[in-house]
Every structure is written in structure tokens, then in C-alpha cells.
Amino acid sequence: MNTIIIDGLSFALPLFIMAIGGIYCERSGITNLAIEGLQGFGAFCGALFAVCIAQYFAGNSPIPFYLAMLFAFLGGMLFSLLHAMLCIKFKANQVISGVVINILAMALTEFLTKQINASIFGAASNKFVLGVSARITVPVLSKIPVLGAVFTNLYPFEIVIALIALIAWYILYQTRFGLHLRACGDNPHAVDAAGIEVSRVRLIAVMASGALSGLGGICFAYSISANFSSNIYSGYGYLAIAALIFGNWKIMPTLGACLLFGFARSGGYELVKFLEMPSSYQDLVMVLPYVLTLLMLIFFSKKNHAPKALGEIYDKGAR
Amino acid sequence: MKNKNNFLHRVILQTIGHEKRQHYMIPVFTILLSLIFGILVIALLGKNPLQAYYNLLQGSGLAPKASYAGHKGMITDFTSFLNALTPMLFAALAVLIALKAGLFNIGVSGQMLAAGFTATVLIGYSDLPAVVAKPLVVLIGFLIGALAGGLVGFLKHRFNINEVVSTIMFNYIFQYVISFLINTFYVDPVSRQSANVKQAGRLTLVDVVVGDYKMDIPLGILVAVVGIAVTAFVLHRTTLGFEIKAVGNSIRAAEYAGIRVGRTRVLAMMLSGGFAGLAGVTYYLGYFASIQPKVLVSTGYDAIAVALLGNSSPIGIIFSSFLITVISKGSTYMSSTSGVQAEIASAITGIILLFSACGAYVQYKVNRWKDERNLKMEESQ
After folding, report:
1. Domain map of chain B by residue range?
2. Nearest in space to B96 (alpha carbons), one of B272, B254, B255, B353
3. What pLDDT does B1 receive?
4. Is A85 in CB contact (< 8 Å) with chain B?
5. Is A309 part of a structural domain of the chain?
6. Which of B372, B335, B283 is nearest to B51 (CA)?
7. A112-116, Cβ contacts within 8 angstroms, sequence gap of 24 or more
């Protein structure tokens, strides 16, 4: 039971932070299919930086990890400027832009990883080895029955994510800027009429999305795969999109969706172990979160509605 | 500087200013831009860019290589290129039809896998003679794909489930379930993939001796050509095509016109899925003969961009698939001869797609320049 909660959380939270980024982006009216590419590129930047500075720190020092998180944050933000430029300035189709950014991020990071490994580190390798981040257990809280598992064997990034998620929630729902952002997604003309520049709000939203995606990406690199390689593109970004649509573009329900994915995944793994089935059965239980999502969507989708102006290019002159 | 700028303006206006020509001139223009960009990148890496590009053509059988292995030649490279092109054509068609109805089929890869796997199990391992097996493979591929696509359309129509989410979910479901089935029942212990299908069911004739050459002949390419023609016909000449386009342009207008939106969407998704299924069988029972478990091919995602690059027209995607396949297919040869990493090829593909996504902006800019020029001319008169 404890393992289910521990592993489930460590999968759900990075997903959640990416989904929050997606919510920011989509609530401002920009469709974001680029999360997959953004998280990969962010993770690439973070991993590259961590590998570069690793020699200056002791093997078990947590500092490279935090710096990697910072650089993943910045890297994702940088790459998201491309999406912003295409969607806002160049008025490109936003879905297409997202797909293109995914393809480009995948190709670029794969190419650069190989090239950098060959030319700087002198090794023919297609990955940056990172190791798994250390885990912490909160002293008193972890003793609570059942719920204590939430505070046991935490990755440090889970705390960072929880804090950022809280801030993100506050900004989106409690501040003036958050209101503008949400209005941009529903009625950009009204926002414009109120004297606020739509493209600026959207730019910030897209950048936030890139930064949070990058953060999510590096967390996966430091937990599940323990390295940066093309394995990072195994669909986390798409899963985050599914979670945010499932969560009806709202932060709290999206958290629910992410937890559902996380617990269904870790629960499935435990089930296979518990029933002592051969490991190929893992594939079968891996289907659980997706089937569950589809089933729940069948019941809840009627009430689902996307931001009204989602995916529409803002044209000042249009009526 | 001002003068030079004007000159550039004039050249651009002359070439892509004409509105009737814009729908193909702008993609060509963006492709040229990105190829120039690619030249810069390769030059920056200290390699000869023109050599590298020429290697791409050589690798795809469009230019002669310096030397060939026995029974190989330019023509065998070219048929092998066509072999790789076929699934891409179908996948792009699949994306295109859904796009026309205003739907995004992100699930092409999953539908390919489902169709490919079903055809492999039902026909690929059977003892049917080739004459029966091959058409059956095509038929099953289309049917399974159409079912998978139609289900997505139905979920959208009946339960308002966003097709982007449902196709992503189905991608995972197909991927894991089929991986499980392969690993449990059909795995080849050596290759760790599904056991190879029998030759009778394969849509590519392997190692056919023609004259002095041994070549792979992809039969699927013929089906693909028919598929493109049928798509063009359906879209431009039939009521269904009109309805699909109407729904894609405006659901409300289509409803007012008495078009049954739900039915049209389901049909469009069935067609889209059907083509994705054909892409699947030409990929898994043509280009390859087995399925790698737990891997979703990138063709489905690339096809989205290819369809866009082809200006969402059935004829256009012939050219865009051709271009993208040349780059991906030729990259292995390029990296072995020029020493440029093969991954640069997909980076160039990405950049081409990036520039082509800006097509609308180029058009907008050019038309504005044109208006400005016309205004100036009027003023001076």
C-alpha cells in the first residue's frame, strides 16, 4: 500500500506540474500540444548543465540536482518562445506548431546529445547519465498511519512541485493577472477593450507552460530513467494534456486526474508483483490508467468545455 | 540597404506574390528557406553541406552512389525508398481527411499498430496463398483502422470526448495490449519482436530478381496512388466530401445547411482510420515483416506535419511525403559517407516543418507588401 502511494505520487506530481503549465497556456487561448517537446528540451538543458558541473561537486551532493531543475525550468521557457513566436507573432496553426515543436525538440536534443557527447566528453553515447535523486522522509508526519506514506521516501522535487503548484494556483485564481489570463482564453476582445495587451498575456502564459514542462521533464529524468536520453519522450507530455482536458482545464480536478494516473500505474505494478505474474503482464496493467480515463470521460465529458477562444488566432480586427 | 531590401521585396513579390500560385509557391519557398538553413548548420559543423545533401539523394536511390554491393544499384535503392514512402503517404492521407473535417487524428500511430497487428495474426501467420492473402491484408488493414478511427469519431459525437485525448489514450492502450499479446504469444525469442510474417501475406515482394538486380517491390505504393486519387475524388466531387469540408469549416453553418454533423464526423474518422490502417499494414507487413513490442512508430506524428506541408491537399502530400522520406531514408547513407550524424536529418525535417508552419504568416506579409506597393503606385499616378 505504501509503495503504491510513494511511487504513485512521484509519477503524478511531475505530470501535474506539466499539466498546470498546459492549463496556463490553454486558459490564455493557446492550444498546447507541445508539452512533450518542451519537457524533453527542458530536461535536456537541465541534464546537460548537471553533467557539465558534476565534476565540481561530491558524488552525493544535491546541488547539481537543484541547479539542473533551475536550468530545465529556463530551458523549457526558452524553447517555448518558439511556440509563442509561431502562435502569437506568426499566426501559425497552434496544433501544428505544437506537433512541429515536439518533432523538433526530439530531433534536436537527440542530435545535440550525441554531438556533445562525442565532441566534449569524447564518448560515443546517446545519453547523459544523471543517477537517481536522493529521497527524504519527513520525521513526524511519516508516522501517521496510511497517510504517512505521502511523507515517506519523498523525492525533493515533489516538495518543490507542491510549492510551485500552490503559487501557480494562487496566481491563476486569486490575482488580477490570473483573471486577465483566463479572460484571454474566453474573450480576448474584451481583454483588449479593457486596455490589456492580449499577446503579452499569452506570451507569459506560454513561457510559464514551457518552464513548468521543463521542470516536470527533469523530474522524470531524475526519477524514472536516471539519465537523459530519447527515453524521455515516452508520452508524459501527452499524458499531461489528457489530464488537463480530463480536469476540465481547472487545476484541482487536474490534480485528481494526475493522481489517478499515478496510482493506477503504481497499483498495477504492485498487483503484478503481488500475484507473481510474469513481467509481460505489466504491459497489461499499464493500460489501466488509460482505460480508466476513457471510461470516466464517457461519464463526465458532457460537462467538459474548453476555453471559448482556445486555438483561435487573435485578430484585433475580427468581430 | 534600403535599396537591397526593395530588391528582395521585388523578387519575393514576383515569385510568390501571385495569389493563384501562392498555394504551392509558399510551401516551396519555406522549404527552400529551411534547406538553406540546413546548409548553414552542416557547414557550421565543418562538413560539406552540398555533399551531405547529395548523399541524401544517393541514399534514396535518386542519384548514383560511388559503388554498390552485388545485385544492388540505384534502382534497388529507389524501390526500397518507395517501400518506405508508402506508409508515410497513407498516414498523411489519414491525417488529411480528419483535418478536413476539423478533427485532429493524433492516433494514426496507434491505428497503424492495431491494423498491422490484426493483419499479422489473422493473415500473416496463415497458410493462405499469396493471391488471397495480400488483398485480405489490405482489406483487414482498412477495416480495423476504420473501426478504431470510427470509435474515436463516435466517442466525440456521442459523449463529447475530445478526439485529441481519446486518440492519445487509444495509442497507449493499443501499444501496451499489443505488446502484451506479442510477448505472450507471438514473440521471436532471438529478435525480441513478433515472429516474421510469411511471404504470402507481405505487401512488399522481397529480393525479386529483375535482370541483374535483387530488389524489394512495394505493392502498397499502387494502393497508395489509388488511395490518393480516391481521396481527391471524394473531397472534391462527392456530397460526402462537401459535407466533410463544411463541417470542418464551421459546425454551425453545416448544421444550418442540414448536414448531420455527427454522422459526417464519424464517417470522416472512419476514412481517416482506414487509411491509417493501410499505413499500418504497409509498414508492418510490407516495409518490415514484424512488430517491435512497446514501440509506437513516429510515422503517425510526422504525418501530421507532412499533411500540413502538403498544404492539406491530396496532391500536395505526394510531394511533402517524398521530401520528408528522402531526408529520413537518405540519412543513414549520409552519416556513413559524410560523417554527419544521422540525427541531423530529423532536425532538418523539423526545421522544414517549422518554417512551413509559418506559411500563413508569409502569405499575410507578402500580401501586405503587395497592397502597400499597389497603394504607392496609385498614389504616384
Report:
1. 1-47+340-381, 70-330
2. B272
3. 43
4. no
5. no
6. B335
7. A112/A44, A113/A44, A113/A228, A113/A229, A114/B341, A114/B343, A115/B45, A115/B341, A116/A48
Q: Which residues contact B53 (CB under 8 A, 6 or more apart)?
A: B35, B38, B39
- CA–CA distance, A91 with A315 (Å, rounded to integer): 9
Residues of B in contact with A238 (CB under 8 A): 106, 168, 171
Which CATH number does B70-330 carry? 1.10.3470.10
Domain count, chain A: 1
Whether residue A317 lies inside any domain: the answer is no
Tell me the ipTM for this assembly.
0.80
Q: Is A154 helix (H, G, I), strand (E, B) or coil?
A: strand
Tell me which residues of chain A have a pLDDT lower than 70.
Answer: 59-60, 318-319
The phi and psi torsions of B204 (rounded to 5 degrees) equal -115, 130
Domain, as residue range, for A119: 2-303
CB B344 within 8 A of CB B42: yes
Q: How far apart are CA A245 and CA A242, in angstroms?
A: 5
Whether residue A318 is contained in a domain is answered as no
Taking a C-beta distance cutoff of 8 angstroms, is the pair A252, A161 a contact?
A: no
pLDDT of residue A308: 86
Comparing CB atoms, the residue among A33, A107, A301 nearest residue B160 is A301
Residues in B touching A290 (Cβ below 8 Å): 169-170, 172-173, 176
User: How many contacts (CB atoms, under 8 Å) link A and B?
Assistant: 141
User: Considering only CA atoms, which of B121, B375, B213, B165 is closest in space to residue A22?
Assistant: B165
For position A19, what pLDDT does the model report?
96
Residue A108 included in any domain: yes
**Orientation angle between helical segments A198-220 and A236-246, nearest 10 degrees:** 120
The helix (H) or strand (E) run that includes residue A244 is: helix A236-246
Please, are residues B30 and B310 in contact by the beta-carbon 8 Å criterion?
A: no
Give the global pTM: 0.87
DSSP classification of residue A224 = I
| First vs last C-alpha separation in chain A | 56
Q: Kindly report the nearest CA distance between residue B222 and chain A, in angstroms.
A: 29
Most confident of A262-276, B6-20, B128-142, B287-301: B128-142
Nearest CA in chain A to B183: A280
**Can you tell me whether residue A212 is helix, strand or coil?**
helix
pLDDT, tens digit, 9 for 90 and up, residues A30-55: 999 899 999 999 999 999 998 888 77
Across the interface, whether the CB atoms of A283 and B161 are under 8 A apart is answered no
The CATH number of whichever domain residue A117 belongs to comes to 1.10.3470
The pair phi, psi for residue B69, each rounded to 5°, is -75, 170
Q: How does pLDDT run across A52-68, given as a tens digit for each residue?
A: 887 787 766 778 888 99
Instruction: Tell me the mean pLDDT in the region B256-267.
Output: 94
- Asked if B346 is an interface residue toward chain A (Cβ–Cβ < 8 A), one would say yes
**A242 with B169: Cβ contact below 8 A:** yes
Q: Judge whether B213 and B75 are in contact, CB under 8 Å.
A: yes
The residues near B366 (Cβ < 8 Å, ≥ 6 apart) are B12, B13, B16, B17, B22
What phi and psi values does residue A34 have, to the nearest 5 degrees? Answer: -85, 0
| Contact in structure between B106 and B171 (CB atoms under 8 Å) | yes
pLDDT digits (tens, 9 = 90+) for B295-312: 888 888 889 878 888 877
The three grid cell numbers given for residue B244, joined into one nine-digit string: 466533410
Name the packing angle between helices B108-119 and B163-181 (round to 10°). Answer: 30
Q: Does A90 touch chain B (CB under 8 A)?
A: yes
Do B351 and B362 form a contact (C-beta atoms < 8 A)? no
pLDDT > 70 in chain B, percent: 98
SS3 B284: helix
